[in-house]
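Narrative of accomplishments. A recurring question from our advisory board has been how the design workflow behaves on a single, concrete structure rather than in aggregate. To address it, we present the structure tokens for one chain from the evaluation set, followed by the sequence designed for it. No filtering or post-editing was applied between the two.
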């Protein structure tokens, strides 16, 4: 049986863990060849070993990528062309938790770093993907990871929420700009997805909070985001562009008040710093 993405070539950033990893695996299962960009080289090496054992060694490449650096993003894009001869799909997914703490205590550098990783990365990924896709003249799909945190207050720290709102807006404006080239641009807005970035190692407590705040009893998994990404990457969504696709178990509909309830946000009023998720960088914090 032919997969939904047979013979297509995709780039997935932040693809060595969490939602990105689930999407890489699903894209490969659906027949795509995939270039994985991630800052965490250890996770990348482990990913290649696992995928090679599963028989995908000829269909996947990994490159250490800082998605906020244009040369890195350009090199990642070139790798897709060099390795597989074309490009069809780009999933700008890499992210971090970013700056946290009271607004009066946030450091400007932490705020800027959050926007560099969460917004500049989407700009750069879209810019370099669009150049290739326009030149190829066969359309394509650009998918950006936003968040329900960017759609209202109370679902994330200030910098993270503002950055994700920017991703939604950027997805809409570039969707209109690139539509004449049959390039579709959409955003996925996850809710609470059970990844290392979300539970920070305290899985049991995270599950308890999810049960309390989320209408659907099902735990959100990386595979749920991967399923939406496959839809947006494939031919079933050829008439879908410029939209934010919410994948949150009904959380936004119920009016989320997540800050202070998830274990890794309960003491944010007492601390300030930076959370780097699964990037391999050490988080920083200071007690107020």
């Amino acid at each position: 049986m032919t997969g939904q993405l047979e013979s297509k070539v995709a780039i997935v950033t932040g693809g060595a863990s969490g939602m990105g990893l689930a999407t890489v695996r699903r894209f490969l299962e659906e027949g795509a060849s995939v270039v994985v960009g991630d800052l965490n080289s250890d996770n990348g090496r482990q990913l290649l070993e696992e995928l090679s054992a599963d028989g995908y060694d000829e269909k996947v490449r990994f490159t250490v990528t800082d998605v906020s650096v244009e040369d890195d993003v350009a090199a990642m894009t070139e790798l897709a062309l060099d390795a597989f001869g074309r490009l069809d799909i780009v999933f700008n997914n890499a992210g971090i938790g970013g700056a946290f703490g009271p607004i009066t205590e946030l450091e400007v550098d932490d705020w800027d770093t959050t926007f560099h990783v969460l917004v500049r990365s989407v700009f750069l990924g879209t810019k370099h993907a669009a150049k290739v896709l326009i030149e190829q003249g066969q359309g394509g799909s650009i998918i950006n990871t936003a968040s329900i945190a960017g759609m209202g207050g109370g679902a994330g720290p200030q910098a993270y929420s503002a950055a994700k709102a920017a991703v939604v807006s950027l997805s809409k404006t570039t969707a209109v700009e690139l539509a004449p080239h049959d390039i579709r641009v959409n955003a996925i807005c996850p809710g609470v997805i059970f990844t290392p970035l979300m539970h920070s190692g305290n899985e049991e407590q995270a599950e308890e909070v999810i049960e309390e705040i989320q209408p659907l009893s099902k735990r959100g998994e990386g595979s749920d985001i991967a399923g939406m990404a496959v839809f947006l990457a494939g031919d079933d969504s050829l008439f879908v562009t410029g939209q934010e696709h919410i994948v949150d178990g009904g959380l936004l509909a119920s009016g989320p008040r997540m800050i202070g309830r998830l274990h890794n946000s309960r003491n944010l009023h007492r601390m300030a710093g930076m959370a780097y998720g699964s990037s391999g960088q050490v988080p920083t914090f200071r007690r107020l």
